[in-house]
Fold each of these.
Amino acid sequence: MDRKTRFEILAQADRAVLLSLAEQILEIAEVEVVKNPQTTLLMARATDSVSGSTFNLGEILVTEAEVRISSGGGYSLIMGDDRERAMAAAVIDAALEAGGQYLSPALEEKLLQEQKRIEIERRLEIDLVARSRVDFEIVKE
Amino acid sequence: MTALKNTSASTKTQGHVSVKANLESMQHAEKLAEYFRVRGNSAPVSVDQIVDQMRLAVDRIMGEGSLYAPILAALALKEAEGDTVEAACLLRAYRSTCPRYGYSLPISTRDMRVVSRITSAFKDIPGGQYLGPSKDYSQKLLRFELLDETQEKFHEILQNCIDGEQPPPLSDSFPKLIELLREKGLLEEETGSGVAEEPHDITLEGLVYPAPRSAQLQALARGESGGMLALAYSTMSSSVSHPILAEIRVGYCPVKIIHPYLNDAVTVGEILVTECDMLDTFVRVAARPGAPKLRLGYGLCFGQNELKAIAMSVLDLTLRSGESSHGVSRQEFVLRNIEGTESAGFIQHLKLPHY
């Protein structure tokens, strides 16, 4: 799993799953906190249809955390105000980055399961929306 | 806070006297408000319930509070006892205490995971039309069965929606209709477009008139829905003509940042937005050289809020019309009056002593 995919799964994974995985890592790893988890504002930018230029749509509440496990730097940024979840995600990221003893097939497997779960949930909604397809016919007088 | 500030301003200009009152009264007033909130002795409303079941109010508050944070928007609605203007104000006050992370990459509404997509200008469009979660075609009848709902009933509703035959799948991305019109040369091109200048951020610099287009769009995106509705309707209520909605879509857009270790774009999550492209049909063709062109108005806001996105696109059109006969074509008039927190603060302050 590449780091980009990992970040994206960690950012959207279930809270309970993240906390339980991080706890397992904390039992065996020495974690150095690089950046205390902080709730902060991410300004969402968007593109104006008229001019094609960028504007500031509004802010998103996010929580960011950064930790280190031996040589592995772990980083997370999640939506919402949840320091524990951000911390857990950063710890998992760092463990996978550090590799070695912290790597376990079960850990990666669990993340892949989360990826699949998110995908299935989205797919269901996409399919439900598909059923609202409408075709308007012109009525001949 | 706005109200207090306004009072001191008017004290100076109109010669009102300063007043003071006992703190106990104010503290008791606050207690009394809490008493009225809970006196019915019903079960406390949970924030989760508000997020799920007061979905559109939460979306509206996030838009007007200019902060995408569903749980906090629900909390604000609970605290404000259902007053959305007050809830948006609470959310804005909260955000002013948070540090800033920075900016996302521009979200792409083309990559939207579409929840609904409608055009009123064309019968057939590439990708098709989807009504989505909408009651536009339902009768406006009170559904008395909602008086007595149970968890079992909820499960039944979910199952009922999931069961049934699956039609062809939805496309992963939908072209924007206006891009097709633009390719055919039917759209009026905005002069000075395509310049990659840093967008104005009104949360940092405030609005100075005339405001650049980026600031205008940001102000409209966080405007108060009711105020925007009234102003947008005022441009049409006494007129026989009206603009044509090219496309309105609601859906989830991925939000991307640059990952500090990878130095590459990564997705943080998704935000629900409503986007509207509106075409002006009362274009003064004679006043413009060349073939007649359609003018485009743009609307985009947090959450599912079609009324606001449509109103925004209508106001964008009137603001660019250059007609001085209507107040709604003046930028300062529109942006000042759709600002919910400030306008509510000012109107509220009329309740404070002005001796």
Amino acid sequence: MTSFVIRKMGVTDYQAIWSQMRDLTLNRDASTPDEIWVLQHYPVFTLGEGADPQHVLNPSEILVVATDRGGEVTYHGPGQVVIYPLIDLKRYKIGLRSLVRLLEDAVIDWLHQYSIEAYNDPEAPGVYVAGQKICAIGLRTHRRCVYHGLALNVAMDLEPFSRIHPCGDASLTPTQVIDWAPEVTLLDAEFGVCKTVIEKLDGGHYA
Amino acid sequence: MGSTIAISDQNSHCMIYHPELTLVALKAIILYNLLTYNNAKETIVARDIYLHDFGDMIEKATIRQWQVQEHESITQDQTLLTFETAKAIMEAPSPVSGKVLKLHCQPGEQVTHEMPLATIELEQ
């Protein structure tokens, strides 16, 4: 049984959290416990390290932050559950690619509990429902320790996604959990996805 | 016609001795043998680095940035480069200590698991 420090952090400023998780990862050693951060962000567009800024069409009043994660441009805002697995991959004997699959499966399994037919796309990591994107993934590793994570649209204002080409794809539209299962709350999603992520890390089936 | 000494290369040397070998030519042969002997003692052991060195079945990736330069000495676990695969950026740690002989790809380039990314002379 692996132990995790789980921090539920509420609605947070993107840059403050990015800097904290970066500090934790760059300064951790073999004895540092793994942490899972569960939070939301105030409205912000974030670009991956290799992202094309032209995919941000009209940010208007919303802040745009160029980050050091993988992936293209995305939007974060209240009502979206963000999970940052700050873990040392060496402990689980899994690789980066397997972790991406594990996070996708954790979200898919949880959505299946509400009979939402979610699936992944090996060519474009993330989770989709009926051709629309419900969860984005972007990660970085430093000495095989992970930061950044996943963002699941639960009960939010999706309008800001129309101001970007999400994940660099002009034809991709977003969806969210309450459009498919109106009874689901943010708390359900925060608790439920965090739990499935931990179960999968503990299960050791992704080595 | 004088004597002929033909040398193909250092690894598979080939000499043709002519009956009328001059003293100068003989000296050249001795010097050559001495040099190849010394070279043999300085054989370098180098190793190519592939995507699969980074602990996962990564089939393809996009190079983001090199964190080392050619001729630089590096230690195991030092970050060699960053690359992106499946929306994840990896700061890829060197599996070995040694000296960077050659970087085989450029930032922005797409690479596959069959392509060597760098060649590293191993620490003896």
